[in-house]
Amino acid sequence: MSTPPSRKLRNAAAVWTPAATMLLASLISYIDRNTLALLAPTILAECRLSAEQYGWILSAFSVAYMAGNPLWGRWLDRAGVRRGMGVAVALWTAASAAHALLSSFWSFAAARALLGFGEGATFPGGLRTVVQTLPEGLRSRGAALAYSGGSLGAVLTPLIVTPIYAAFGWRAAFLFTGLIGGAWLLLWRRVSRRAELRAPHAAGARRAERLEWRDRRLWAFIASYALGCLPLAFVLYQAPLYFGRAWGKSQTEIGAVLWIPPLGWECGYFFWGWMADRLARGRADVIPVFRWLTLAALAGTVPLALGARAESFGGLLVLLFWAMFIAGGNVIVSLAYATRVVAPAHAGLMAGLGAGSWSAVVALTMPVFGRLMDLRAWDAAFGAAAGVPVAGFCLWLLLNRRAAQPKGGRTKDSSSS
């Protein structure tokens, strides 16, 4: 007897529910972090902070996020996502809500650091959940679903937070982030009762497959993720200041359009996730697939350098949409490469190393971008935002070209690729 359509639908929903719950976690985390970016023109003016100080506040978040990602990733691999994600979301929710009480540079820096450390569990938890609950042939799309909450949060933040700001002020917006974090914790308490999420996964596989730190492909992954995804941070954190200072847009006008570039990020996740799963299906050696996907992303990043020369505001939004579409694809392609080629049994740690290294680059570059914004050096800012990913893609190609096959690897010797 064939399975009734209603049962197939329920079964499909059950399979994808954990990944969808992690989508909500990453969505909330990006609403939490993007609320400050969206309201930066107002907050900086009211609290008398410069763009360079704002850059250092972002760095405080990024440094803590950098440290938190691999720590959470390792812990989630060993102790499981059920308890780990509950602790992490509770921590970052409290830190986000506390922003409503802040007014000085040091208080914002401290709160952002605590927020960053807690949110370091977001993507390790998402990828760990996907690997535990989905078959390999669905994992790139599962990662796209779990990670897409970040891009969706960037899309929704201006649409949700701007009305709250207009009605109640910027401090109320941060109280709202506390409410949605609490709601997720209640949902997770129910979803995480599933057997595959209650206990650590594949402990034996972790013992059998040791992470090879000398494997050049591991460093190729880190270089591609850390440098190739910089445009995401540039658009999220610096575009609101650029819109206000270079184009004279008000806080309300910025909120009305700031959802458009991250929509490209959201589309990029699903398009590139589908491409990675489709092109790698049934292949013993998947490295050539990732080489061509990486080169495609390299070509797509270059136009961002022309952002300061956009002749219309609409044209600028299209360009930023495209830049985030490409950078979002680089996230998924890098993760697919890491979990299929480098260390499949260390999914949480791989996600943590990728996001943590990206955060390190963000921490180093945001004060520089903030300084360029203060100097109104628009061409230099956009040129750097486009140039750093090109360096990352070149490093990926160079390191991967001579990568040695680790013991117990799943692909053919890549030295000839």
CATH architecture: Up-down Bundle
Q: What is the class in the CATH system?
A: Mainly Alpha
Largest sheet: none
Total individual domains: 1
User: CATH fold name, please?
Assistant: Growth Hormone, Chain: A
Please tell me the overall pLDDT: 83
**Tally of alpha and pi helices:** 18
Number of strands: 0
Rg calc: 21 Å
What letter string, H or E per element, gives the SSE order?
HHHHHHHHHHHHHHHHHH
Binned, the helix content reads: over 70%
Distance between the termini: 47 Å
Characterize the structure shown.
The chain is mostly helical. It has a single domain, classed as Up-down Bundle (Growth Hormone, Chain: A). 80% of the residues lie in helices and 0% in strands. The protein has helices spanning 5-38, 40-47, 51-79, 81-98, 105-119, 122-133, 139-168, 170-191, 195-198, 203-208, 216-228, 230-247, 251-257, 260-280, 287-301, 313-342, 347-375, 378-401. Helix 3 runs parallel beside helix 5 (105-119), helix 3 (51-79) packs antiparallel against helix 17 (347-375) and helix 4 runs antiparallel to helix 5 (105-119). The longest helix has 34 residues, at 5-38. The radius of gyration is 21 Å and the shape is globular. 54% of the residues are buried.
